[in-house]
Amino acid sequence: MAPRRRSNTGFIGVRLRPAGHFAAEITAGGTRVWLGTFYTKEAAARAYDVAAWRFGRPRHEMNFPEVRSLTEAQSLSTEPLLRSQGEARRYRSGQRRINTTEADEQFMAQWRRDHPGAVEAERAFWKEKQTYRRERRAGKRQRRAEYEAEYAKGEASTWGRMMNGGCGTSQVPLQRTPPARTKISTSD
Q1: Where in the cell is it found (predicted)?
Q2: CA distances from 20 to 37, 107, 112 (A)
Q3: For a tag on the chain, would you pick the N or C end, based on fewer CB atoms within 10 A?
Q4: Is the pLDDT of residue 91 over 60?
Q5: pTM of the model
Q6: How many other CB atoms sit within 10 Å of the CB of residue 157?
Q7: Is 38 left (phi over 0), alpha (psi -120 to 50) or beta?
Q8: CA 83 to each of CA 27, 39, 86, 98, 159: distance values in angstroms, whole numbers, following the listed order
């Protein structure tokens, strides 16, 4: 069997990227598996060899045939992440979000150390807001209990009470008067 054609980098499964980095990929069962982008072509070739060992490829299809086992190949290389291109794309987009979140957390930690007064003011604000919400909920519960008690007694209608602005003494709905219409004369 003729030896496999090597790319312009001199290694199988390694391509030069436009930014000057080296990409490594391998095909397995008709699917292209992305191994990653590396700073050197040797690192990309070693990642290819680890994947080739995992897929059970013969030695003549490897970049470094003198490596005798998978463990030796792994010790000479960084661990490649075997992913399809779609998985790699999803992983990269997720990593961007994680990196942004980590950067935000680091920034906020530094900001808290630099501005302890602002942190205290923020805590006081949220504590006050929490107290306000609790009081508001308690008042709402109390009003509801009063409405239900009145309704159960049959003394007053909750509808009449709501229509009269919360006053349960009268059951007559509020009268609305239409706004006065003014006629504009066109003749002068």
Answers
A1: Nucleus
A2: 10, 32, 40
A3: C
A4: yes
A5: 0.40
A6: 14
A7: beta
A8: 11, 19, 8, 19, 64
The answer to whether 175 and 186 are in contact (CB under 8 A) is no
C-alpha of 23 from chain center = 28
172 vs 157: CA distance, rounded Å:
10
Please tell me the total count of domains within the chain. Answer: 3
Q: Is the pLDDT of residue 133 over 60?
A: yes
CA–CA gap between residue 57 and residue 13 (Å, rounded): 13
100 inside domain: yes
Task: List the beta bridge partners of residue 45.
Answer: none
d(CA 126, CA 109): 19
Which segments within the chain are labelled E, that is strand?
Answer: 14-16, 22-28, 31-38, 83-84
- Place 105 in a pLDDT band, splitting at 50, 70 and 90: confident
The token pair that represents 168 in the structure block: 């349960």
User: 45: which 2 tokens?
Assistant: 């070739």
Element (H, E) at 137: helix 116-153
- We report the CATH number of the domain holding residue 34 as 3.30.730.10
